[in-house]
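TASK: fixed-backbone design
INPUT:
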């Protein structure tokens, strides 16, 4: 089918400026023709009105600036959607009394919605309790009568109250699982704090909702996803890469099947499958790339280590004040190499969660081994890559590994990295070093760990300071990106990280996916990122969805 198939309608978009991409030298246009969801031509207004077919729709967006639509390359979309309506948000808590207020305020809402017995909180920072997580006894003060499940800000620690420990049957005799740890008091009794794979000892109530096949539960999930996709579109986000279990893929498939034409508040979804599902997928003969332009399965997600905030990121140097604590290996060493090679030999790229410098190094060892067995070159990614030694940055470039990073984490990680990585912190978030070595960056938000508002990632990448800090607070400024480079990582870089040659750019043959702005975002100064917000977006040349 040609770009100008006569069976499909054509649209002429007129705007103050149409920026086709974020590489230096990309020349702006003032008009664009789209047909069948793709870009046909760019040029001046006069040229477009001369080129258009009879009967073409003309949409004049007046003073709007059009750029390629933004792509969030690391999300947990389903759980961000559910968090908006099912979870008590604790991200603004600064003191223990703030938790009491938050749970008290949510009590009436839970009763009104008729929720289950479980109470769920999320985004709790260890700093609320002085760089540690609350015990079951402390949580009992806030929710004494129901099981309480509280996720840490990074999602790698869960805190339970006494009732939840009882329901989960976690006792003194419960053993630590491989790849996880149960925090214990001096007598060996569980304190209520679970790290990494110990979290799997208790069922996440929100995950149970997502997995339910009850009609009412599925309707709640679907409504949450509808609202989440509309919210993303209002931010200028047109596509996401998401990485959760089969419950997420089922929900995305339900959403896709409701509207096979992809109209409305649609967002393009590229999905990874968990390592635990790899053998099932290969037994069925499935391969990466299954799907269409709206929903595609692309990779296998593997967890190599933990996180900085929970001090479980796997490091070469021990954490200060500990007796040989180097973090928490999840899938590491020989096990990681075997898993990556098994996926690659079956034709599946891997997206390896690796935050600590040792986890990144071991992941690159595994990918180097996989390069020898994969049938064709695959687009492997390191997710997060928060601490990377210079020698491993060079290896990423040689191996062609994408750095899928979330610069929105940086402002909140500065204090943690200064305390936990006193020497390694100089290798944290090495954006500039990666760019200079030729590593492709793909930026994302890690929602719901962080909010997906694009300005947060742009601030972290181009300014590198805690929220609201002045120029004196810039952290290793030599590693900053330019605004153009950061926007490229949120568009073309993200598209390339999943082998999408027609994504993240506006040119003939590319998808007509656009972000709409009041001004040219390339000209935003780093310090002014907080004021940068899209006006809305267009996906597949459809009708614009505008921010409220």
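OUTPUT:
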């Amino acid at each position: 089918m040609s770009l100008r198939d006569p069976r499909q309608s054509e649209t002429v978009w007129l705007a103050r400026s149409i920026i086709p991409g974020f590489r230096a030298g990309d020349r702006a246009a003032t008009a664009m023709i789209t047909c069948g969801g793709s870009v046909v031509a760019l040029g001046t207004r006069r040229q477009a009105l001369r080129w258009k077919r009879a009967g073409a729709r003309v949409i004049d967006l007046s003073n709007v600036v059009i750029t390629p639509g933004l792509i969030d390359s690391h999300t947990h979309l389903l759980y961000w959607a559910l968090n908006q309506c099912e979870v008590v948000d604790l991200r603004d808590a600064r003191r223990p009394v703030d938790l009491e207020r938050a749970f008290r305020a949510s009590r009436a809402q839970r009763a009104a919605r008729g929720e289950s017995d479980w109470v769920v909180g999320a985004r709790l920072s260890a700093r609320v309790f002085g760089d540690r997580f609350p015990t079951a006894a402390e949580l009992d003060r806030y929710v004494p009568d129901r099981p309480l499940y509280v996720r840490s800000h990074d999602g790698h620690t869960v805190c339970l109250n006494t009732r939840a420990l009882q329901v989960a049957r976690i006792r003194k005799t419960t053993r630590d699982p491989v790849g996880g740890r149960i925090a214990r008091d001096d007598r060996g009794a569980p304190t209520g704090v679970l790290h990494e794979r110990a979290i799997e000892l208790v069922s996440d109530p929100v995950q149970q909702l997502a997995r339910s096949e009850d009609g009412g539960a599925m309707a709640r999930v679907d409504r949450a996803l509808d609202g989440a996709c509309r919210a993303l579109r209002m931010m200028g986000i047109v596509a996401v890469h998401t990485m959760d279990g089969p419950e997420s893929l089922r929900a995305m498939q339900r959403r896709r099947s409701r509207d096979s034409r992809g109209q409305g508040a649609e967002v393009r979804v590229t999905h990874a499958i968990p390592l635990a599902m790899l053998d099932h997928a290969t037994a069925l003969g499935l391969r990466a790339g299954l799907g269409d332009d709206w929903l595609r399965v692309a990779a296998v997600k593997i967890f190599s280590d933990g996180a900085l905030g929970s001090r479980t990121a796997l490091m070469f140097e021990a954490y200060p004040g500990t007796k040989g604590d180097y973090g928490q290996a999840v899938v590491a060493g020989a096990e990681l190499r075997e898993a990556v090679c098994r996926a690659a030999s079956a034709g599946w790229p891997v997206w390896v969660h690796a935050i600590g410098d040792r986890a990144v190094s071991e992941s690159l060892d595994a990918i180097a081994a996989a390069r020898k067995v994969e049938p064709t070159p695959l687009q492997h990614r390191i997710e997060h890559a928060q601490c990377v030694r210079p020698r491993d940055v060079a290896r990423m470039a040689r191996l062609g590994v994408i750095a899928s990073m979330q610069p929105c984490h940086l402002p909140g990680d500065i204090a943690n990295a200064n305390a936990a990585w006193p020497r390694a912190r100089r290798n944290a978030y090495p954006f500039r070093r990666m760019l200079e070595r030729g590593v492709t960056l793909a930026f994302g938000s890690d929602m719901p760990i962080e909010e997906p508002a694009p300005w947060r990632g742009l601030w972290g990448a181009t300014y590198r300071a805690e929220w609201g800090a002045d120029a004196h607070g810039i952290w290793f400024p030599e590693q900053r990106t330019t605004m153009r480079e950061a926007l490229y990582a949120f568009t073309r870089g993200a598209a390339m990280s999943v082998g999408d040659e027609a994504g993240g750019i506006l040119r003939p043959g590319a998808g007509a996916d656009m972000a709409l702005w009041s001004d040219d975002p390339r000209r935003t100064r780093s310090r002014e990122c907080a004021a940068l917000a899209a006006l809305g977006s267009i996906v597949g040349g459809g009708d614009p969805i505008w921010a409220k």
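COMMENT: Residues 215-234 form the longest helix (20 residues).
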